């Protein structure tokens, strides 16, 4: 019987699982292009803040695809800095829709402008990172919360794994703007790589430390450069460890905001409360923070 033909990943918007079987380690490489550009175009943020939002989007994609989730995974930060809220959702695929991501970040412009230091620690301040898993059916929802690390989103997620999963995990996340002629606003790219010890695998602590150090040398441009094939990148990093890649999983921008859901929520309000939400023409318009669509709910629908 012939072996199935290997299909290389696209330039962007994919999750690529891989294994380092001799070291007892598995991994995942994420590159987001059109999906991250769409997600980050809904709210125009200064570069420092957009970079953090892009990294959070990549983290949600890494975790969601690694879990092979059929529901939703949310990565959310809440903190007391100017960038006080970031939310990134990953949606698993179903019969009608493909797997995808969306994101939103809230920034206090005045507090941001007053910052002399634009580092992550200054932008976010003190707060927490929460990872929420909501299966579409079957298992109950789960949430893990850790303190935000001043070293960034990746460091905060590693703390989550250390406390919740007890599986040694290392992450590298990156995001950067791509400027093209004729466009004033950049198209944001996001990317990330995760290494994680395989449960019950026979492994060497020396191997794990060596691989962790190798991952730490990974440059942002290597993660984000769509002209550098993922296979070439993985070979550069792990050619001594017989790296094996699996089929890539496509990703897209996806927002599941739904007018029917908004209507069902509004029906739980008293009529007097709904009147206060309506515009002068009697229509309630609820803008989605993620995709900027503005569903219109008429009095007849209620």
Q: Could you give a short description of this structure?
A:
This protein has 302 residues and is an alpha+beta fold. 30% of the residues lie in helices and 28% in strands.
Describe the structure using short key phrases:
302 residues, 6-stranded antiparallel β-sheet, 6-stranded mixed β-sheet, globular
Question: How would you describe what is shown here?
Answer:
Helix content is 30%, strand content 28%. The chain has 302 residues and is α+β, with helices and mostly antiparallel strands. The strands form three sheets. Strands 1, 2, 8, 9, 10 and 11 form a six-stranded antiparallel sheet that branches. A hairpin with an 8-residue loop joins strand 8 (169-178) and strand 9 (187-197). The relative contact order is 0.19.
Largest sheet: 6 strands, antiparallel
Indicate the overall shape: globular
Tell me how many strands there are: 14
Taking the alpha carbons of the first and last residues, their distance comes to: 60 Å
Question: Residue ranges: pLDDT <50 for 5 or more in a row?
Answer: none
Structural class: alpha+beta
Helix content: 25-40%
Fraction in beta strands: 25-35%
Tally of DSSP helical segments: 10
Give the H and E element order. Answer: EEHHEEEHHEEHEEHHHEEEHHEE
Mean pLDDT: 88
Structural Rg: 21 Å
């Amino acid at each position: 019987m012939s072996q199935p033909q290997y299909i290389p990943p696209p330039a962007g918007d994919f999750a690529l699982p891989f294994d380092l079987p001799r070291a007892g380690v598995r991994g995942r490489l994420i590159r987001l292009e059109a999906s991250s550009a769409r997600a980050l175009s809904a709210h125009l943020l200064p570069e420092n803040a957009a970079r953090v939002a892009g990294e959070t989007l990549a983290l949600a994609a890494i975790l969601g695809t690694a879990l092979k989730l059929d529901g939703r995974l949310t990565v959310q930060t809440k903190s007391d800095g100017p960038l006080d809220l970031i939310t990134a959702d990953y949606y698993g695929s179903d019969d009608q829709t493909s797997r995808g991501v969306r994101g939103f970040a809230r920034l206090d412009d005045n507090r941001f402008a007053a910052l002399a230091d634009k580092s992550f620690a200054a932008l976010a301040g003190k707060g927490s990172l929460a990872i929420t898993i909501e299966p579409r059916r079957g298992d109950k929802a789960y949430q893990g919360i850790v303190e935000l690390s001043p070293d960034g989103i990746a460091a905060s997620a590693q703390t989550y794994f250390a406390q919740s999963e007890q599986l040694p995990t290392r992450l590298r996340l990156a995001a950067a703007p791509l400027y093209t002629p004729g466009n004033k606003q950049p198209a944001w790219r996001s990317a990330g790589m995760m290494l994680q010890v395989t449960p019950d695998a026979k492994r060497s602590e020396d191997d794990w430390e060596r691989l962790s150090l190798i991952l730490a040398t990974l440059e942002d441009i290597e993660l984000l450069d769509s002209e550098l094939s993922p296979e070439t990148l993985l070979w550069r990093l792990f050619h001594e460890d017989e790296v094996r890649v699996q089929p890539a999983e496509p990703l897209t921008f996806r927002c599941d905001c739904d007018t029917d859901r908004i209507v069902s929520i509004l029906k739980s309000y008293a009529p007097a409360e709904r009147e206060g939400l309506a515009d002068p023409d009697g229509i309630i318009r609820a803008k989605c923070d993620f995709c900027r669509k503005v569903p219109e709910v008429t009095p007849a629908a209620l």
